[in-house]
Every structure is written in structure tokens, then in C-alpha cells.
């Protein structure tokens, strides 16, 4: 397949006024996908280096995931949690086995999983820790991204995500990311949890110091508060390990999963973790109509089967090393101001004097047949599907180098 394509002009144009303007997509209209490649309506091929913000870790149309979905579509798609179905426990077994956790609560979107973790942490704080009623606080990090609900944007430090959506939910303390002492200083008798991304994805793949999570783990354990890690983007193979926290040997009390858990087929999310913590929920206290539906469970189980052998994680680490070496070479050549990588995941910063924004670079990449997305001005996140071939990875990185030199 060739990456030699022209900019798809006008593809966002006619009729788009009917859509609310909460995204500013690149000018391309996609029609089909296969593995690391997608095609637009005119049949032009593009390498997908965003992979649905890591929801497409297994690429487009993975045969095992499609087979699981097709098979389940014909059998049973929704029961509601008013009735059990035959894949619910197998799904919980598969995800908890994969992540080395004890219990699972199924949801649909990432934001719902984070909301669930917040509710469980608060209830645990009141019921188990004896925190004074209505006083629970959760320590969170500046620059974080945890979703778009009113409670979650209440503690966002991104003005675009937060401004204009108040009144805001109280009960959160924001500290700088990567500073374990700041976490320790923010914990008091009302604190029930510390909620962090092990690597900040939306912020531009910000990798904290290696001792950060281990120290936060020690601090939270000593204080008797929960460590909640949001692995919705970093988890499920992206960083070269099943969970990003595995890289530094840290085990959280609760972990949120999403994005890749749905295999790029449908939204599937979950909170996994300690049984005594998730156990504070009792019937009627929390729920979701679609959470844990048979179709979601079928795809989620198939996702776990793909990750069980560990080959995709190893592949992410190997290809990630290839990608990191090439990006660092571009940085040494002065083409990039900064490079941050973790497995097959990179945040790159365009130099301030390059005369091009992150968006501008993404447009040049599009013209060269590579899809990527800027985040916060000069930063671009690269997250090719873990199934990308090494040759295709180089094709994409060649296009990046060419776009930076243009
Ligand atoms: C994408 C993301 C979310 C929100 O997931 P949605 O499915 O869009 O609600 C939450 N946390 C992190 C770290 C994410 O990357």
C-alpha cells in the first residue's frame, strides 16, 4: 500500500454545519480501515498513527475481534444488568486475570469508569475510613485528562475543557504532576484517594520520573488512602507492558480501563481492583444500562485473549525502541524540540522557531498519508496500532521527517 497521497481537499465541507463544533478534524473523510491503514472515500490510503487515541491498539478490523463481535451479534447483544448473561463472569475473569486484580465493575466509556472510581473512592472513604460526611477529597494532578463529565472537568486544569461548565463539583485538590512530595503534602484526614494517569496521555505523553509512582504508592499506603490509576489510554499494551504501572512495579488499589478494552469496535470500560474497595457498592448504589453488555463482554474477552500471551506488549516495546531511536535522531538534527516515549507511544514537540504549529505539522503529515493529532499547540502524539509492521512504522516516520524538513 502506498502512502503517496494528496491532501483531501474539501472533505470536511458540505453539510458539516449540522454537526456541533466540539472537534476540529483534519480535512479527511474516512471510509474503511484494515490494520494500521485507513482509506478515505476516494480510496486514498493513510497510515493511522493516532489509532483512536489508543482505542485501536489492535488496528482496524482485527479478525479475532470482528469474529467475536459478529458471533455475539447473532446471539445476544443486551440484557441489562437486571439479568446476568453467560459472558459477564468470563469477562470479569479475563480482565482481572490479565491485570492481576480481584474484582471488576463494567461500564462503557472512559469517563464513566473514572466517575465510578471517584464514587467508589468516596464511598470507601466514608464507609471504611470514617471520613466526615461530605468532606472527602481526592488528590489529582495538573495537566491530567480523565474525561468530559461535569465532575471530571471540575478538576481539569485545561481552560478549554473546564471554562464555562460550572458550577463545579468540589472535593478535588490539584497538585503538580510528577512531584510525590506535593501529593504527600496534599493528603489530610479527609483524603480518600489519589487519582493519576501513570503517564499523561492527552498532555502529550508526559512520563513522570521513574520513582514518582513508587513514591506515591508508598505515600498513599502509609496514609491509608487509595491509589487510583487511570490506565484508559496508557493501559492494555501501549507502553510495552499490560499496564503502564507495571513498568515501575506499582500496583494500584483501583485501575480504570477503557479505549482499547473495546478493541476499536465499541465502547467498553471497567474499574478493576481490590475486592474490599469495589465491595463497598451494594445493589442499587451504582449502575449502567449498557455496562457489561454481552457484545461488550465478547469483544472485551477477545481483547484479553490477544494480550494474554504478552507478544503484543513485547512488540510495543520493540517497535517503541525503533520509534524512539528515530525520533531522538530527529531531535538531534534539530527537527524536534522534545521527544517523550513509552513503548509505542510518543509525544513530540515542534521547535518554537520551526514556523509551524502542531496542527500545521499534522496537515503536512496528512498530505503525506499519515494521520496524527496535535494536542496543546506544539505537541503531537504518535500512537500507531501495536500491530503496525516495522516497515510501515518506518514509512510513517519517514513521512514525519520529510514533513519536518519541508
Ligand atoms: C480518553 C480518556 C478518558 C475518557 O475516555 P472516554 O471514553 O472518552 O470517556 C479518561 N481518561 C484517560 C486517561 C483518557 O485517555
UniProtKB/TrEMBL annotation:
Keywords: Amino-acid biosynthesis, Aminotransferase, Proline biosynthesis, Pyridoxal phosphate, Transferase. One of its GO terms (molecular function) is pyridoxal phosphate binding. Pathway: Amino-acid biosynthesis; L-proline biosynthesis; L-glutamate 5-semialdehyde from L-ornithine: step 1/1. Gene3D superfamilies: Aspartate Aminotransferase, domain 1, Type I PLP-dependent aspartate aminotransferase-like (Major domain). Its cofactor is pyridoxal 5'-phosphate. It holds the Pfam family Aminotran_3. One of its GO terms (biological process) is L-proline biosynthetic process. Its EC number is 2.6.1.13. PROSITE patterns: AA_TRANSFER_CLASS_3 (PS00600). Belongs to the class-III pyridoxal-phosphate-dependent aminotransferase family. This is ornithine aminotransferase.
